[in-house]
What does this fold into?
Amino acid sequence: MRNKIVAGNWKMNKLYSEAVELVDEITIQLKDDPKADDIIKIIIPAFPYIRKVVRHSHGVKNLFTGAQNCASEESGAYTGEVSAAMIKSLEANYVIVGHSERRSYYKENHLDLKKKVNACLEQSLTPIFCVGETKEIRQSNKHYEVVAEQISESLFHLSAAEFEKLVLAYEPVWAIGTGLTATSAQAQEMHHFIRSMIEKNYGKDAAHKVSILYGGSCNAKNATELFACPDVDGGLIGGASLVPKDFITIIHSFPK
Ligand code: PEP
It folds into this structure.
């Protein structure tokens, strides 16, 4: 059985006191919520709040903390960067790698992302590796090609044992923060395509072990339909993860 995962990407939102309030509200609700116990829940705040979120997550079953990015280099003269080892030293467990905002605003390419994945794995951090196509790419019917390239260029150097440690997230760029969600059929099609790619390269076992999350305007209203798809193992949630009630509803949205 694959892990069912709901990860909340807070992006560059919330001042410190607001972040503390938010993680407080979420953890208070989750502590008293046995229905959520078996779901892996990940809160991914801005770097300065990681330690606080880690502390709050103690005592909540299957609640973990992640970072939104990490450096591709190990250490040294890289002003402004945060290394995988530093993230690990804060006791976080996950790192988003290849979010479309990093690919587009910060021009992170396949090789940068490959190095970041390696840096995470070296520190026993789990990369949540994001892939997805822009609206133009989908309109020109090249979305499978683009997603296949994102995966093969940054991940297919890994061994099967390493690949099994990853979490993948399919996030169509046209759906992120836009209120436009992929239909469950579009999500399932792409998730199935990704899983078939993994199977071809690494075999059935690996393909069946890796959780593939959907991201892109996933919310309290549409999560049930998306999570009902056989190849959708949960969600990477942006906007809705900043609203405790909605985040908890999404966590409750897996089929019984
Ligand atoms: C994201 O940025 O990973 C994301 C899915 O954002 P949103 O849910 O706001 O579309």
User: Anything to note?
Assistant: The chain has a mean pLDDT of 97. Residues 5-251 form a domain with the TIM Barrel fold (CATH 3.20.20.70). DSSP finds twelve helices and eight strands in the chain.
